[in-house]
Specification:
Radius of gyration: 13 Å
Largest sheet: none
Strand content: under 5%
Shape: flat
Order of helices and strands: HHH
Length: 68
């Protein structure tokens, strides 16, 4: 599975390549499933929103992302 992302000027291509190397299809599906099923609806400013952001921040750090 190929991961495709559009990056703004503050994201280096090296960071995206690092993430792509660490992500496999199964891990990606588990991440998406957990985000959708555990954190549920994430309206801006709600506890679910903030919990999901913090969880995803930690998850991205395991992919090698330093700045989230």
């Amino acid at each position: 599975m190929e991961v495709v992302a559009e990056a703004g000027p503050s994201v280096s291509s090296t960071s995206l390549e690092s993430i792509q190397q660490k992500v496999d299809g199964d891990r990606l599906m588990r991440t998406i499933s957990y985000l959708a099923d555990v954190h549920g609806p994430r309206l801006l400013g709600t506890p679910n929103y903030y919990n999901a952001v913090e969880w995803l921040r930690g998850e991205l750090k395991t992919y090698g992302v330093d700045t989230v």
